[in-house]
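Anyone able to model this chain together with 2-acetamido-2-deoxy-beta-D-glucopyranose?
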Amino acid sequence: MRTQHYLSLLSFIISTTSMLFSAYCQQDSETQILLQIKSEWGNPPALDSWNLSSGNHCSWLGLNCTGGVVTSVRLSNQNLTQPIPDSMCLLKNLSYLDLANNELPGSFPKFLYNCSSLQHLNIAQNLFVGTLPTDIDKLPSSLTYLDVSGNNFTEEIPVSIGRLANLKELHLDGNLFNGTYPVEIANLVNLEYFSLAWNPFLKPARIPDEFGNLTKLKSLWLTQTNTIGEIPFALSKLTELEHLDLGWNQINGTLPSWIWSLEKLNILYLFSNDLTGEIITGTIRCINLFEIDVSLNKLTGSIPESFSNLKHLSVLFLYYNLFTGEIPASLGLLPNLTDIRLFNNNLIGQLPETLGNFSKLWNLEVNDNRLSGQLPAHLCSGNNLVSIVVFNNNFAGEIPPSLANCNTLNDIQLYNNRFYGEFPSSIWSITNLNTIMIHDNEFTGMLPKRLPWNLTRLEIHNNHFTGEIPTFSERLQVFKGSNNNFYGELPENFIGFRVLQELSLGSNKIIGSISQSIQVLKSLTTLNLSSNKLTGSIPDSIGLLPVLTTLDLSNNELSGSIPQDLSNLKPNFLNLSANNLSGVIPQSFKNQAYNQSFLSNPDLCTDSNSNTILNLPVCNPTLSSSNKLSRELIAIFSTLGFVILIGIGIVGFLLIRAQIKGKTASYDHETSWKLTSFHKFDFTEYQIIEGLKEENVIGSGGTGKVYKISLNNDEDQIVAVKRIFVGHKMDSNLEKNFNAEVNILGQIRHANIVKLLCCISSMDSKLLVYEFMENSSLDRWLYGKERMHGSC
Ligand SMILES: *[C@@H]1O[C@H](CO)[C@@H](O)[C@H](O)[C@H]1NC(C)=O
Ligand SMILES: *[C@@H]1O[C@H](CO)[C@@H](O)[C@H](O)[C@H]1NC(C)=O
Ligand SMILES: *[C@@H]1O[C@H](CO)[C@@H](O)[C@H](O)[C@H]1NC(C)=O
Ligand SMILES: *[C@@H]1O[C@H](CO)[C@@H](O)[C@H](O)[C@H]1NC(C)=O
Ligand SMILES: *[C@@H]1O[C@H](CO)[C@@H](O)[C@H](O)[C@H]1NC(C)=O
Ligand SMILES: *[C@@H]1O[C@H](CO)[C@@H](O)[C@H](O)[C@H]1NC(C)=O
Ligand SMILES: *[C@@H]1O[C@H](CO)[C@@H](O)[C@H](O)[C@H]1NC(C)=O
Ligand SMILES: *[C@@H]1O[C@H](CO)[C@@H](O)[C@H](O)[C@H]1NC(C)=O
Ligand SMILES: *[C@@H]1O[C@H](CO)[C@@H](O)[C@H](O)[C@H]1NC(C)=O
Ligand SMILES: *[C@@H]1O[C@H](CO)[C@@H](O)[C@H](O)[C@H]1NC(C)=O
Ligand SMILES: *[C@@H]1O[C@H](CO)[C@@H](O)[C@H](O)[C@H]1NC(C)=O
Ligand SMILES: *[C@@H]1O[C@H](CO)[C@@H](O)[C@H](O)[C@H]1NC(C)=O
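re: yes, here you go
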């Protein structure tokens, strides 16, 4: 008994020791392998901890061991810039390799075929180029996860990929695949996650029926893959689907009703396709639906009442369709609905009365419909509402009190409705407030003494506001307040308002004069103070505003002469009519373009060469000097010089005509820039235009160049600007399309789409300003053959 016991103990000790010993040896050699890998990788700073004095190698950064041997290497986001070392596969038990988000160069790392235990391979978001190898099926058959997204892999996706039979996840999105993808992918019957999105496949293709065989699929992501045709009925077999994303394609036909029977569906994105018909014809079984985005299609009919069964629904995007009818009142009962975008449809009736009562509503965009009635009383009950965008409808009534005290609000766009009553003064103390666009209503009320700190855009023209002009906020970019009843004087001091681009306060009752300090408004492009009661002279410093292109001071009581410095401006629009200005018109305005600019100023005059052009009287020759000439001299001059004068006159006429022609032409060419913004930002078009230098070019394509511009020398404030030259004669249809599409893009805030901050346009080019994202699908946006989505 005892002996047996000792023997077994002894054998246990021996076997354990030998196991430990062999493990020790293995560890020792693995340590050597790791140091070799480190050195082949160029000793990157991220691998500093890979050294002999920092303990067991299993504790080194990014490593994980099983039974003392390395089984996983996780080095994503480590600034690795050298190729993956060949010796990686000397780690015999390596099963998990994650090197995503580095700058790994070169072609697909075929030597990984030798990592015989590999199950998980992630090389997403690197700098890989070239094709995927046609023998990619030589990757170990143990592979269950393959992610090569966000690289520059190109051409065909190899047929052999369909032989990696154990794959559960295959991510191919965000590359430069421009060939085709093989139907053999449908052989990967274990596949749960499959993405092909954001690839520039050249040949339009239908979704293969065979994909219906991928019955374990939970996620199918085919955004922007040049997919056409109808959604195949075969996909109705994908009953495990949780996430179906087919956006930015040309999928047509009706929206199949079986989609609403996929019981596990969480997310349905079908935006930007050519789907027609009603959104739902059958019943809804996918009661877990969390996000619906079917925007930018041609869907008709009304918004189904049955959406009120979707208790988890958080995001409902139906914008840019042909929906008619009323918004079901029951949507106001959904407990989780936070983001509603129904804009640009034909909806009528009221908003659900209880909207905001039962969910923490965050964003409401229903602009461009035919909605009427009052705003729901409790939109902000969840204390979460950030934007309310309801412009271009027939809404009426007063602002509900709950909205007036909604401290989360950022963006208020109520314009072109029939709202009336006092614009609540409490709104002005909302600290996050960024945009207020409430023009063309019947609001009364006064502005606060000082505009809210964060306010960048205030558009309240065509209302009945009264009181004095407030002190601006430092971030204010646009203040349009024309056609109200403002009185009092303009701010005495403009210092501190560097980013102001437009100041329009025409048709009010403003008195006093314009301060010389206006010259600090270096971003000002539009100044409209027409039809007020301004007195004093035009400050010559206005001529120092570098980007001013629209100046309207007409219909005031301004006096004095027109400052010579004003000639520095090359305004597209200049109106100084109906004042008491006097003296001579500066030389550069003697030109057809300004023939309506100086009318009804009895004391303004010009020389005889331009008086008919400008509709102004000829200035009296100053007699004091001519007095000194004797009448005889004059007589001699007039007789002797008569012929010469006629000669000079003809030449002069020709010259001036040429000059006027030249001027007008150069005036046409003068680039005046118009900015359309879609998001809040901290820069001006001037800063962008300044950055359009050759040294900032990061790429160029058929239609124009792409610039990377860092604003304010701030590395965190970088934008990508695509400049599209449209030439002199942009076809008006093309222009219309471009504008419509840029508008759409600007309004979309989709996770997968790079944010278009603004569009700046001039006569001969368009600038699309995007958020700059390194290694993102932005590349494709910027360089791709545009299917331009988005408006200017
Ligand atoms: C070795 O690794 C340790 C722990 O990470 C680190 O503190 C030390 O600086 C490293 N030594 C060398 C020589 O890199
Ligand atoms: C290491 O592996 C263990 C067991 O497989 C796992 O629980 C742990 O999360 C892993 N740690 C890291 C950092 O990968
Ligand atoms: C490492 O892999 C080999 C076969 O490749 C296997 O025999 C061994 O048990 C594995 N070691 C561990 C600790 O998993
Ligand atoms: C990578 O580089 C960036 C920028 O140089 C730096 O901020 C970051 O800390 C680095 N990350 C690592 C893991 O070294
Ligand atoms: C795999 O390893 C073998 C032997 O070490 C080597 O001959 C072969 O070239 C490697 N294969 C690849 C694809 O690197
Ligand atoms: C990837 O492609 C983009 C655009 O096609 C290009 O700008 C970039 O330089 C490429 N990157 C590499 C590493 O080739
Ligand atoms: C696909 O793109 C590559 C470069 O990324 C290019 O060389 C090739 O010609 C393209 N193929 C086609 C069919 O246009
Ligand atoms: C795959 O799907 C196609 C078309 O839907 C079908 O004809 C074929 O039999 C399926 N193959 C398998 C192996 O199920
Ligand atoms: C859908 O598109 C395909 C391919 O472009 C076309 O052949 C078909 O006629 C279209 N169907 C409908 C209903 O428009
Ligand atoms: C409600 O939405 C939030 C995110 O907006 C989500 O995390 C949560 O799970 C949802 N709750 C329900 C019951 O669906
Ligand atoms: C909506 O909420 C407000 C308070 O937030 C409450 O007074 C009102 O009764 C609620 N309405 C309904 C229908 O629940
Ligand atoms: C401006 O807005 C930001 C968030 O958008 C907020 O954190 C900040 O407090 C606001 N500033 C002021 C002075 O209210």
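The CA atoms of residues 197 and 223 lie 4 Å apart.
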